[in-house]
Design brief:
With 176 residues, the chain is mainly beta. The protein has 2 helices and 11 strands. The protein has helices at 2-20, 34-39; strands spanning 26-27, 58-65, 68-70, 76-85, 91-95, 102-107, 112-115, 127-131, 136-144, 153-160, 163-175. It has a 5-stranded mixed β-sheet with strand order 3-11-10-6-7, with no helix packed on it. A 4-stranded antiparallel β-sheet has the order 1-2-4-9, with no helix packed on it. A two-stranded antiparallel ribbon has the order 5-8. A hairpin with a 2-residue loop joins strand 10 (153-160) and strand 11 (163-175). The longest helix is centred in the N-terminal third of the chain and has 19 residues, at 2-20. The radius of gyration is 20 Å and the shape is flat. It starts with a helix and ends with a strand. The model is unreliable at 15-25 (pLDDT under 50).
Length: 176
């Protein structure tokens, strides 16, 4: 009887790993629950370490919609960036203008095709953003797909110009 229990437990662990995965946006690491630690004991739990100590505890999530872009139907890519504070203290971000993020649309050779700021006016309006522990800030923007070609892989790169360490990228595919 004991010989049969081992393979069954192994099969259950593998099945939980396979069925527990989902097509998620690009993300930085997050804290895990005890349930996640049991079923994924070897995955990393550390938060990103930034050179700037003021940024410790922050993580970025990026969602590009749609994931596979049909150029005949889509003229604008929906970009959603979430900046979360998973640390134990509040994080203050200072901005000299009303621009918070910059979005680059790159080809697979890393050449910048489109910049988000090319189509947006930036004004000198200083501001401060405070992100409390366990809270987040979302930025929902769009970027034009006019420079994209079908059946190619492209990269969306989002970063905070004032804080260049806060940077995230995601690849996507185009279709005719």
């Amino acid at each position: 009887m004991r010989r049969n229990v081992g393979p069954v437990l192994l099969w259950l662990a593998l099945a939980a790993h396979v069925f527990g995965q989902e097509a998620t946006p690009t993300t930085t690491l997050k804290k895990r629950s005890w349930f996640g630690r049991i079923f994924h004991p070897f995955s990393s739990t550390s938060l990103p370490q930034y050179n700037d100590p003021r940024l410790r505890g922050l993580t970025l999530d990026l969602l590009v919609a749609p994931q596979t872009v049909k150029l005949s139907e889509v003229r604008q890519l929906q970009i959603k960036v979430t900046l979360s504070n998973l640390g134990k203290r509040a994080v203050t971000l200072d901005f000299p203008t009303d621009q918070r993020i910059e979005i680059y649309l790159r080809n697979s050779a890393e050449t910048v095709l489109t910049k988000w700021t090319d189509n947006h006016a930036i004004t000198e309006k200083p501001a401060t953003v405070l992100i409390n522990p366990q809270e987040h800030v979302e930025y929902n923007e769009t970027i034009a797909t006019r420079d994209l070609r079908p059946n190619k892989v492209f990269i969306v790169e989002v970063f905070f110009p004032r804080y260049p360490e806060l940077r995230i990228r995601q690849k996507f595919l185009t279709e005719p």
